[in-house]
Design goal:
Elements lengths: L1 E2 L17 E16 L9 E3 L6 E5 L5 E8 L9 H12 L13 E15 L2 E2 L2 E3 L5 E2 L7 H22 L3 H28 L5 H16 L1 H12 L6
Length: about 240
């Protein structure tokens, strides 16, 4: 059986407490996300560090934009009117800088997304194999959630084929350890991106964040490391 039923499904809990180990980090901020019926203001993602908090410009389609703002955890969505959201996005994304303009539009959806990291091991117990969110959660900053789920399946499919078709148990026996190497690498990358871009109110942390950002944007080695982790590591890494 393959448990790919998400973080709230029964598969994760089916691993006995005496066997499973869990690690979790809950971040003190959330994302306020919106969908807007307006064409994206640029054809590139924008990750923005700002003293008032993180912001992200992303695209859903040629006519729909997806945007995010950092807000304190537990923030009621009712506190954020459409006008307040667009004003905060314009400020944090740098509206007007170098001639770039953020184009507002009708907001069709609002939600607040808590941020956390979670890993459960092992990803196999007996005849049960865990994949995707059933075994691990990452904050969305590094865009690794779906990538990790696909990577799990890319390892698991041939492993199950070898077990059921060829009678070779070795790839299935190695699945959990092989998958977790990538899970922990991506968990670290997601934590790094999150803590580099989200403000904490600590002036010391802010200077460290700016130092990291200057390194990433000015160093070929720093940019290459970010690109390698963001774009995706080889299957089986």
């Amino acid at each position: 059986m393959v448990g790919c039923d998400g973080s709230f499904g029964p598969s994760r809990a089916s691993v006995p407490p005496a066997v499973r180990q869990t690690w979790e980090k809950v971040y003190p901020y959330s994302w306020l996300g919106i969908l807007a019926d307006v064409a994206p203001s640029t054809d590139e993602l924008i990750y923005a560090w700002h003293p008032e908090g993180f912001a992200l410009h992303s695209m859903r389609s040629a006519t729909v934009s997806r945007l995010y703002l950092q807000v304190p955890s537990g923030t009621p969505i009712e506190e954020w009117s459409d006008d307040r959201i667009w004003e905060a996005l314009a400020t944090r994304l740098g509206h007007g800088q170098d001639g770039w303009q953020l184009t507002p539009g009708p907001i069709t959806e609002k939600s607040v997304l808590p941020m956390r990291s979670f890993v459960q091991t092992p990803m196999r117990h007996g005849r049960l194999f865990l994949a995707g969110d059933a075994a691990h959660i990452v904050p969305p900053t590094g865009a690794k959630g779906l990538n990790l789920a696909v990577a799990d399946v890319a390892l698991l499919a041939p492993a199950l084929g070898a077990l059921l078709r060829d009678g070779d148990p070795r790839p299935a026996d190695a699945y959990s350890d092989d998958a977790l190497r990538r899970v922990w690498r991506s968990t670290h990358f997601s934590w790094w991106m999150t803590t580099m871009l989200h403000t904490s109110g600590d002036p010391f942390d802010a200077q460290l964040q700016l130092a990291q950002l200057r390194w990433v944007t000015s160093s070929e080695a720093g940019a290459t490391g970010l690109a390698e982790n963001y774009a995706g590591l080889p299957i089986g890494f």
